[in-house]
Amino acid sequence: MARPPGASAHETAPIELPSEPIQARRFGKTRTALSAVVLEDYAELIGDLLAISGEARPTDIARRLGVSHATAINNIARLKREGLATARPYRGVFLTEAGEILAARVRARHRLVVDLLLAVGVPAEAAEQDAEGLEHHVSDATLAAFSRFLKRDGG
Fold first, then answer.
1. Which residues fall within 8 angstroms of residue 114, CB to CB, at 6 or more apart?
2. In 64-147, where do the E strands start and end?
3. Which pLDDT band holds residue 2 (cuts at 50, 70, 90)?
4. CA separation for the pair 71, 55 (Å, rounded)
5. What is the mean pLDDT of the chain?
6. pLDDT surpassing 60 at residue 132
7. Could you tell me if 56 and 45 are in contact, meaning their C-beta atoms sit under 8 angstroms apart?
8. Which residues touch 26 (CB under 8 Å, ≥6 apart)?
9. How many whole angstroms separate alpha carbon 155 and alpha carbon 148?
10. Would you tell me the crossing angle of helices 58-65 and 20-53 to the nearest 10 degrees?
11. Alpha carbons within 13 A on the beta-carbon side of 122
12. How confident is the model at residue 1 (pLDDT cuts 50, 70, 90)?
């Protein structure tokens, strides 16, 4: 079969789909991961706001995450249902012990990913921005490899 100019063999290879159950499992894993990302981002931000200013108000959370107030309220309610946060009238949002553990874990993952990106020459702002997505999707094995690399490299 003739290949279009500039196309690699991979681009012209026939498409082979996995079986439906395998493909559904893969997409299901991705959807579950994306759902967890939201909780992780909220927990991390709430923890940061509490550490810096002593309060995490839904309005501040919405502004910092770039979402509507209603979206922030819905996700805060989800954090509460998951046992990760509590809210007090006129006092804002607070993390439970489980929420604090989650926030600390996400913050540590974020720092490790940023440190690795900086070590390989990514500019600081790009490293911070890229880490926001990567931190949620890399495996523990990959994070351990990042850490070993940074220790070996003196980072």
1. 127, 128, 131
2. 85-88, 92-95
3. low
4. 19
5. 88
6. yes
7. yes
8. 18
9. 10
10. 120
11. 16
12. very low
Phi first, then psi: what are they for 67, rounded to 5°?
-125, 170
Which domains does the chain show, CATH number per domain? 22-100 (1.10.10.10), 104-153 (1.10.60.10)
Instruction: Give SS3 for 52.
Output: helix
Q: How far apart are CA 27 and CA 47, in angstroms?
A: 30
Query: Does 133 have pLDDT greater than 90?
Result: no
pLDDT digits (tens, 9 = 90+) for 106-131: 999 999 999 999 999 999 999 999 99
Residue 3, token pair as written in the block: 């290949």
| Full-model pTM | 0.75
Report helix, strand or coil for 13. Answer: coil
